Amino acid sequence: MTNFQFSDSDGIELVKMARRVVTEFLKNNSKISDSEFDSKFDFSSGVFVTLNKEDDLRGCIGYPTPVKKLSGGLIVENDFSSGLLLPQVPTEYGWNEEEFLEHTCQKAGLNKDAWKEKSTTISKFQGVIFKEEKPNGNIIRESSNDLL
């Protein structure tokens, strides 16, 4: 299985797993053993988790491995700085391609025009997005039509 072959039931299981891991760490300051997870997810892949409270971003962490240049979300890297924006972000904010590049540079702590520098590496990646409609609520697959 690759990250693009997730069924809706896989997505539901993964979101519940992410919630369980975060909850366990915050409540008990402990980690869940890898052996507690379904072996069908035992493969190398990137992962990214975003936490929202209502419509406000509360935090995000992860690092998807770039799989293909020029398609999807963006990763900008320059020296020891890197920034990542998920594929749905420019659509949510109504950004054009240049604004997407500028904001990803700023997320990396770089000048907004750093993407034009030869020393800057730009990668794009694909993703499959599952989310809860509300905390502990139904888990849905975000339509790929909503993404770039």
From TrEMBL:
Residues 1-141 form the AMMECR1 domain. Pfam families: AMMECR1. InterPro entries: AMMECR1, AMMECR1_dom_sf, AMMECR1_domain. SUPFAM superfamilies: AMMECR1-like (SSF143447). This is AMMECR1 domain containing protein. It comes from Marine Group I thaumarchaeote SCGC AAA799-P11. The lineage of its organism: Archaea, Nitrososphaerota, Marine Group I.
